[in-house]
Amino acid sequence: MVKEKALIEAILFAAGDPVSLNKLKSITGIKENNIKDNIKELQEDYIKRDAGIELREVAGGYLMATCSIYAPYINKLFADRTRQGLSQAALETLAIIAYKQPITRLEIEAIRGVKIDRILDKLKENKLIIEVGRKDAIGRPILYGTSREFLKRFGLKSLSELPPLEEYLKNEE
Amino acid sequence: MSYKVKTSIFEGPFDLLFHLIKKAEIDIYEVSIHQIVYQYLEYVEKLQELNSDLAGDFLVMAATLLKLKSQKLLPIPFSDSSEEDEEEIYYSSEEELFEHLMEYKKYKAVTEDLKKLEEEEGKYFTRPVKINKKSVKDKELENILENVSLQDLICSLENVIKELDEEQPEVILPEEISINGKMDEILSYLINSRKIELESFLKKQKSKAAIIITFLALLTLIKIRKVTIYQKYTFGPVIVYYLEEDTEECRERWKVSG
User: Fold this and answer.
1) Range of the domain at B189
2) Are residues B112 and B189 in the same domain?
3) Mean of the per-residue pLDDT values for chain B?
4) Distances in whole angstroms, Cα of residue B49 to Cα of each of A113, A134, B44, B62
5) What φ, ψ does residue B113 adopt, rounded to 5°?
6) Closest C-alpha to B58, from B96, B26, B20
7) Which residue of A88, A106, A108 is the best one to mutate when testing the B interface, meaning the one whose CB has the most B CBs within 10 A?
């Protein structure tokens, strides 16, 4: 006997990547509202029994992940393959792309004042940025934007969750 | 760009400038360029020992700043409106620089937050996904390989290796042609027949490389005066003669002519 809540749990466990509401709908055939209710129930279940995992909403989907308080232990488990954080240069470049997308390489370089070929390659390699088109200008330069992987990496539901820019300017002055 | 000096402070010229402006606690619109350049050069001096690439980048920035400073020292071109509010006049390049700098400052600030977000997010572990979004491609691959057995794969591999073996002599062949070898060839041919008609000799060569090397060998032989060439009339056949016995005479000629 297939139970809706258990089915959704099974899918999210197997996925390992954020699964969108639409995808859950098409896989299970369950109504959107019921999916949402089930997910809420699952989330509460985990909290109630102090589970080691939780259901999170990231990058436009639902994601099953271990609770952050256990991170130091999981890090020990993966001691040989811990993910390195992005370098300062890569982060700055990524920030510019995130806020100004779509943007060309030259436009980014104008802001950062340095060449960024290698950084762009690295970001592409990590699938944090994608080519989103070509600018209607001389040479039709590539336009870059952030990917779903970017949202996942920074735990954002969508781009609208990016920290606001202007406030920082005001705070600084 | 990979920097050897990797602190949160030095990552690029704008970055450094920003740091210096912050350190000097100067309002960005009232930057004393003299002060900045002075501090700037101090850093460049330190950096040169660590990373010349980086120092080069920074020198460009220092030069830009010096240019701006010198522009500032020059009298402002005549303009009536300029006298009214001198404070707000900026040269286009300077304005542009500050515009970029202000913008950069914005992103620099937000980068700190992104870093924190990344760190926070790094504490959540999900089940590892081996191949990202490639499941469709995998299926395609499966379809392609559906009717292929391991034996087929081994066969085609063997075929490819066999072809490689057959091609090998062709690869080695060009390496066997050397200028020295060709020089010997030309000389031994000349000893027998005293002269060679150049065009027909080159035509005998089996590959482009052989023709080129033969030609080079001929040039070398002419240079060391083992042979000489002669053409009776324009566009006529070029004849190569053996020269060894005439060497003395030849040298005399060279001495005379210069």
Assistant:
1) 174-257
2) no
3) 67
4) 22, 41, 9, 17
5) -70, -40
6) B20
7) A88
Q: How far apart are CA B227 and CA B242, in angstroms?
A: 5
What residues of A are in contact with residue B118 (Cβ under 8 Å)? Answer: 85-86, 91, 153-154
In chain B, the number of structural domains is 2
Of B14, B1, B16, B8, nearest in space to B47 by CA: B16
Contact B181, B220 (CB under 8 A): no
In a domain, B133, yes or no: no
| A33 and A69 part of one domain | yes
Cross-chain Cβ contact A112/B104 below 8 Å? yes
The pLDDT of residue A129? 92
Residue pLDDT, tens place only, B34-79 = 665 666 667 666 665 666 666 666 666 666 666 665 655 566 555 4
B109 with B179, same domain? Answer: no
Q: Domain count for chain A, please give it.
A: 2
What is the span of the domain harbouring residue A162?
88-172
**Is the Cβ pair B111, A56 closer than 8 Å?**
no
Domain-embedded: residue B30: yes
Residue A81 lies in a domain: no
Does the beta carbon of A10 lie under 8 angstroms from any beta carbon of chain B? no
Of residues A156 and B14, the one with the higher pLDDT is A156
Nearest to B104 among A56, A111, A119 (CB): A111
Interface of B with A (CB under 8 A): 1-3, 6, 8, 11-15, 57, 61, 100, 103-111, 113-115, 117-129, 132
Confidence of residue B94 (pLDDT cuts 50, 70, 90): low
The span from the first CA to the last CA of chain B, in angstroms, equals 56
pLDDT of A143-154, one tens digit each?
999 998 899 889
